């Protein structure tokens, strides 16, 4: 049985994972710039290889974050649907959850295009 408390938790989870995803995307940009700068300066091959490993690890986190976000979004939608079936269709928590779902779906559609 879905409750408002579960809805709040799932909404917060989606928001947290979304922030995490944006953080990893920024980290990849930073690390890519750092790697490019090291190549331009002719850095030590060992240091360059280590930096490329750091960049690779950051890049691997993005698909993982996407999967977790998609799963969390599906759970949030499910909980929201259950609450709407029990005639709980209004309230700040429900509005927040709906905004979160709409924002994440919009983000996924712009990334796919």
TrEMBL record:
GO cellular component: cytosol; microtubule
Pfam assignment, any one: TBCA
Domain of life: Eukaryota
GO terms, molecular function: beta-tubulin binding
SUPFAM superfamilies with a match to the protein in the record: Tubulin chaperone cofactor A
Alphabetic keyword roster: Chaperone, Coiled coil, Cytoplasm, Cytoskeleton, Microtubule
InterPro entries: TBCA (IPR004226), TBCA_sf (IPR036126)
Coiled coil: 7-34
Biological process according to GO: post-chaperonin tubulin folding pathway; tubulin complex assembly
Ranges annotated as biased composition (Basic and acidic residues): 89-99
Principal subcellular localisation of the protein: cytoplasm
Region of interest (Disordered), residue spans: 83-113
Localization per Swiss-Prot or TrEMBL: Cytoplasm, Cytoskeleton
Subunit structure: Supercomplex made of cofactors A to E. Cofactors A and D function by capturing and stabilizing tubulin in a quasi-native conformation. Cofactor E binds to the cofactor D-tubulin complex; interaction with cofactor C then causes the release of tubulin polypeptides that are committed to the native state.
Family classification: Belongs to the TBCA family.
Name of protein: Tubulin-specific chaperone A
